[in-house]
Amino acid sequence: MNHGLLARILYATYLAALFLFLFAPIAVVVVFAFDAKGIATPPFEGPTLRWFRAVLADPVLQQAAANSAKIAVITVILCILIGTPAAFAIARLNGRGVRAFALVISMPLMLPTLLVGVTLMAMFSSLGVGLSMWTATVGHVLVTLPFLVFTLSARITSIDPQLAEAAANLGATPAQTFRRITLPLIGSALACAGLLVLGWSIDEFTVSFFNMGGGSTLPMAIWGQMRGGVSPTVNAISTIMLGLTVFIILVVHRLGNIAALGGKTG
Amino acid sequence: MADRRALFLTAPGWIWLTVFFLLPCGVLFAYAFGTTSYTAVNFGTSLKNFGDVLTTPTLQTVVLRSLTTGLAVATLTVLLAFPLAYAITLGPFARHATPILLLVVVSLFSAFIVRIYAWRTILGSSGVVNTFLMQIGLTTEPLDELLYSRFAVVLTLTSVLIPVAVLPLTAALSGVPRSLIEAARNMGTTAPQAFRRVTLPLASGGIGSAFALTFVVGAGDFITPQLVGGPSSQMAGSAISSRFGISFDWPQGAAIAFTLVAGMVAVLVALRLLMRAAGMRDRP
Amino acid sequence: MQSPAVRVIGLTRRFDSTLALNDVSLDVAEGRFVSLLGPSGCGKTTLMRIIAGLDRQTSGRVEIAGVDHSASAPNRRPVGLVFQRYALFPHLTVAQNVGFSMQIRGEPQAAIARRVTELLRLIQLDDYGPRSIDQLSGGQAQRVALARILASDPPVLLLDEPMSALDLKLRQSMQIELRQLQRQLGKTFIFVTHDQHEAMVMSDEIVLMNAGRIVQRGSPEEVYFSPNSLFSARFLGDANLIPGTFQNGVLAGDGVICRPAAAAAMTRAEGWACIRPESVTISLASGEHGPNMVHARISETIFQGASRRYHALAGSHRFLVDQPTTQGTPLGVGDEVRLSWPDSAVAMIDEPTHG
Questions:
Q1: Is pLDDT larger for residue A256 or for residue B157?
Q2: In a domain? residue B220
Q3: Interface partners of A (3+ CB pairs, < 8 Å)?
Q4: Which of C89, C96, C153 should one mutate to test binding to chain A, selecting the residue with the greatest count of A CBs within 10 A?
């Protein structure tokens, strides 16, 4: 189809406006993270790294960052351990059992995250399980698992199942086939999905909010500082988290798997 | 043989989801029929909690407000996201889809709470928007309604959820063959007719899932109303979270939660029937 | 006595309610080139996959070189499989693909490199070792798949329609190449195909399958000229099929009498005679009439290059006749002719003529 110059200009203007709508608020936060005043109110009063130094020196934030990092890493590991076989089942096998499984696995993503967080907390509490970093991690796995499973199963579906048969025919044991054929072929998709789960977990607020008990994570620290009135370090924490997101997305893009980004829904 | 393999491969997932998702949902459902004192929550068989939700005006209001906010947000989101998805699939920027999608994905994966915080910052009475409006002389004093209002909730959620809608819309539109649209144009249909009779019906699945996803997230959110909404823009999510927090009334919280989910399902089923009816009429 | 290279006994494979293989038994002698021929869905690919262990029989046995492999894992079976779409590993180079099985067995790198070089020379892709497999054409990919199997040195090769993705010219030259390679290596080849020409060109023996059963087996000549069923007669090529009743060892159909070389045992009073178009001699009419001889009128002539095809009407029968273009004078539509064929060209088929 031919698109006239006018159409191109109209679309370009629209896209620019839309991205302004998406990114302008974030940009303001990032800019004022470097502002001497400490609140995001014009005018900009000169650059400083003071707030970043304050963030890095704050023991409460250090603890929150450490929690976020630990939860994220454990979440990624659990997601991969549970999600990889699940993705193979969904991609390679069919039958009523597997279809029911695919439906149940996607349910935490189709419900408001609030309800996932609340149900989990209610169960832990009624069983007398103390809330901690670990209970929060369980929730993180629940909400990120469908994303990992469906991106990975999309990749597995695109691999010719005869490759594994050919390897077996050439004498490879199932373990050798997995290590030499399957893993290299799904490797980059697995790495991309794992990285995105990592980023998602670091950003996840709702589930942690209900299941962390007394502890805190970075998003919870932002929430706490916002609720507690004006805090000059929120802009800096937010900027650090945004920087991390951009970094992860760029790495994923470098690994060449923008298709792996298709599944995140909310 | 395939059955045993399926069981083996899905077993970890089944165990995880049963223990940490299906079971908790059951527990919460049971709580919805329970009672509470200020020290303990008890299971029970009372329908009182659901009765309260349906008859208490404030609770009715928050549930309905959740659904209407969700509908508004989903509608705006899909309408705003559609041209972007169209531009990078069938439209003039198909060859630049990758960098554009990359921006969308960066936005999607940026922390929810940071993006909400950002809106709160710029909509505040001394924020960037008010300052700008006063500088250009459009207003003389800060507009307080910008923040802590329903407007702020809808605006913020729409901005936050646009990336969520872009991906299913893009997937659906990239599955519409250009040749079909060209064929329709060759047969003498106008561009808008071709769009309505070819493109839209073929992309309706993606439009439906984009709408459903943004509706569920929008209607079920509790962060946005608390951070940028005022007292009159609180939604069911805030009520639920407070029942499970400070006010310690799990049974009522559970009842609100299940009422909200039932309302969401009802809305989505109604929309699906509507879409199907509209789709039927479109067919010659 | 030497055991057959491959023996399957009473093999049955059920998929839900359908029988993909129905009590199939087959011996394949060592060093033979055997084609499993049949229409799609006849069970030939299932049979091959079960021999390779990639699919499991519902009942029955699989023996390879005298050893029972009915239940062994695919990686323990001494058979090599060339897949229809080659199944080359996309993340490995040509050389790594060819050397895969040796790598798995943990052979020394130097030995692997030497063998890979040898095999690449054998398939005339000497310089292709470091290339990525998506730089290969269809024919090259097929040779690499073959070399990859040869590197694992199995006594039996299974080939699953390996030529179906190639164009006609390339396919014809690969057919000859593959046949020569098989003779040179002395390995047993089991070749799966739905193309009867391919099967006839290449095979020592054809195993014709239909609906999960073996219909007929024999040399290409036997199966072609002496079909034992209407299915065999039709699947292997064009045939004149004459229904009739048996009397005194001959078959009498509406104005045509067919006399076979040897009286066949028939289970019913009616049946069919099959005569291939090449077996029929055509000459200008001389009024004679008798067994294996009929008077007809030409209704169509078609020039086919090496041969000329005539359609000739004899009573209610329409005969197909192929005459070499270089013999006799061309006949025209409407010419009155005599069709005749030798007793040896008549194959009797014991199937009912109605229903």
A1: B157
A2: yes
A3: B, C
A4: C89
Report CB contact under 8 Å: B111, A241.
Answer: yes
Sorted by where each begins, the domain ranges of chain C are: 6-225, 239-349
Q: Indicate the average pLDDT of chain C.
A: 90
Establish if C15 touches chain A: CB-CB under 8 angstroms.
no
Is residue B226 situated within a structural domain? Answer: yes
Residue A236 CA to residue A55 CA, distance in Å, equals: 7
Tell me how close the Cα of A170 comes to any Cα of chain B, in angstroms: 22
**pLDDT digit string (tens) for B118-129?**
998 888 877 888
Contact status, residue C332 vs residue C213, Cβ threshold 8 Å: no
Q: What is the pLDDT of residues A46-80, one digit of tens each?
A: 788 888 998 899 999 999 999 999 999 999 999 99
Query: Mean pLDDT in runs of 10 for chain C (355 residues)?
Result: 86 90 93 93 92 93 93 93 91 94 94 94 90 90 92 92 82 88 92 92 94 94 93 93 86 86 78 93 78 90 91 90 86 90 90 78
Q: What is the pLDDT of residue A266?
A: 29
B139: domain CATH number is 1.10.3720.10
pLDDT at B52 over 50: yes
CA atoms within 13 Å, Cβ hemisphere of B243: 30
Cβ <8 Å between B10 and A85: yes
Q: How many CB atoms lie within 10 A of CB C284?
A: 11
Q: Over the range C88-112, which residues count as b (16 or more CB within 10 Å of their CB) and which as e?
A: bbeebbbbbbbbbbbbbeeeeeeeb
Nearest CA in chain C to A179: C104
Range in B33-37, B64-68, C176-180 with the lowest mean pLDDT: B33-37
CA distances from C323 to C3, C281, C296 (A): 45, 7, 15
Say if B12 falls within a structural domain.
no
Identity of residue C286: S
Q: What pLDDT is recorded for position B165?
A: 94
The interface predicted TM-score (ipTM) is 0.88
Question: What's this model's pTM, rounded to 2 decimal places?
Answer: 0.82
Residue A75 phi/psi, 5-degree rounding, is: -60, -45
From the candidates C88, C100, C103, C105, which should be mutated to test the interface with A, based on the most A CB atoms within 10 A? C100
CATH architecture of C239-349: Beta Barrel (2.40)
- Residue A33 within any structural domain of the chain: no
pLDDT at C260: 87
What is the CATH classification number for the domain harbouring A115?
Answer: 1.10.3720.10
Q: Is residue A79 part of a domain?
A: yes
Q: Do C87 and A165 touch (CB under 8 A)?
A: yes
> Is A27 inside a domain boundary?
no
Interface residue A185 vs chain C (CB under 8 A): yes
Check if A162 contacts B (Cβ < 8 Å).
Answer: no
Given the candidates 3.90.800.10, 3.40.1180.10, 2.20.28.10, 3.40.50.300, the CATH classification of the domain at C6-225 is 3.40.50.300
Chain C residues whose CB is inside 8 A of the A160 CB are 85, 87
CB hemisphere CA count around B190 (13 angstroms): 2
Give yes or no for B17 touching A (CB within 8 A): yes
How much is the pLDDT for B279?
65
Tell me the C-alpha to C-alpha distance, in Å, between residue C133 and each of A256, C118, C147, C149, C302.
20, 19, 13, 16, 45
Instruction: Residue window 107-136, chain A: list those with CB within 8 Å of chain B.
Output: 107-108, 110-116, 118-123, 126
Residue B282: its pLDDT value, please? 46
- DSSP H or E stretch at residue C244: strand C240-247
- Å from A82 to nearest chain C CA? 26
At B243-274, the pLDDT tens digits run 888 777 888 999 999 999 999 999 999 988 88
- What's the structural domain count of chain A? 1
Number of domains within chain B: 1
Q: Which domain holds residue B242?
A: 58-277
H/E element, C295: strand C293-303
The answer to whether position B188 is within a domain reads: yes
- What pLDDT, on the 0 to 100 scale, is given for residue B126? 75
